[in-house]
Amino acid sequence: MNKSPLTIQSYAKQNAHEFGRYLLSLVFGAIQADLDLATPNITAITSVNAGSVALSNIQAMQASLDSAGAPMDRHLVMNSSVNSALMPSSIETFGPGVLQGGRFGNLYGMSTHVTSVTGGSDVDDVHTFAGSSDALVIANRIPEVSGTSTLEEYTPFTVEGIGLQCAYRRYYDAAKGEHFGAFTTIFGCSLAKPEHLAVITKAS
After folding, report:
1. What integer pLDDT is reported at residue 59 of this predicted model?
2. Which of 112, 140, 153, 203 has the maximal Cβ count within 10 Å?
3. pTM, entire model
């Protein structure tokens, strides 16, 4: 029985956005680590600030993935400033199915995802990236249970919408006479095929 005042699933649902932001920040970090190498493996299409990105830049990302022979299951991740910069004055500009609820659903064959995660704030930090489904490898599992002698509640669950496996653990500290809880997960991100990624970095 779940003894928590707030049910685990309701908490996870309320905070799924923050879970997702954190995980995406790790993805940005993995991409940035490659860009910071003396000889990066990822193609930087151009350096332009997020609010000045043009459709030609997005098309260049698509062309780079084509040249690299990337699979057609492709995704474009951009922050809200990029989305606003690309937004046309009239929805009819792109025809039906491209714009949905003020956001792009698909651009140049890439499923489009708008995020409030902006990447780094320094020059040459990535703020927009595109890649195929094989470009990144992500691992996730629930940590092993420990401290079972004081464990009062253990509830594994999945964060809906992002598929993150987590566990809620509630313990009792007899010395302090206090209960405390923690959400735990193990998550990792690495580049599987960096040649199947294309990025736009910050100019200034």
Report:
1. 94
2. 112
3. 0.77
In terms of C-beta density within 10 A (0-12 exposed, 13-18 middle, 19 or more buried), how is residue 199 classed? Answer: buried
Residues 6+ apart with CB under 8 A from 175: none
What is the pairing mode between strands 106-107 and 74-79? Answer: unpaired
Residue 193, φ and ψ in degrees, nearest 5: -135, 80
The pLDDT averaged over each successive group of 10 residues in the chain (204 residues) is 55 70 87 92 91 92 95 91 80 61 79 83 89 90 74 80 78 83 84 94 88
Order of strands across the sheet with 178-184? 151-159, 164-173, 178-184
Q: What is the largest CA-CA distance in the chain?
A: 66
> Measured between alpha carbons, how far is 6 from 4 in angstroms, rounded to an integer?
5
Q: How far is CA 187 from the centre of its chain?
A: 12
Could you state, in order of their start, the residue ranges of all structural domains in the chain? 8-140+185-201
DSSP 42: S
Residue length, the chain? 204
Beta pairing class for 186-191 and 136-141 = antiparallel
